[in-house]
Write a structure and sequence with these properties.
Length: 73
């Protein structure tokens, strides 16, 4: 029985590599390792950008409402 991919000639979509923290690296090629490094660099950049945004938001709130240390007196 033919599938829709057979009928329409669609090729399978290549899966992006997924990195799991602590995974075994023995079976990964140099290209695989480079791809995993790129994934991790992008994730670190995403985390740093969100951290900066949240710090800015926290500092703005502290300027407006005062910091928690100011209220303990």
């Amino acid at each position: 029985m033919a599938t829709l991919d057979d009928v329409f000639g669609a090729s399978p979509v290549a899966k992006l590599p997924v990195h799991e923290i602590g995974q075994k690296l023995d079976s990964l090629s140099v290209d695989d390792l480079l791809a995993h490094l790129q994934i991790l660099r992008e994730e670190v950049s995403r985390l740093e950008a969100d951290l900066l945004k949240k710090r800015d938001s926290k500092q703005a709130a502290e300027r407006f409402f005062g910091s928690p240390q100011d209220k303990s007196d």
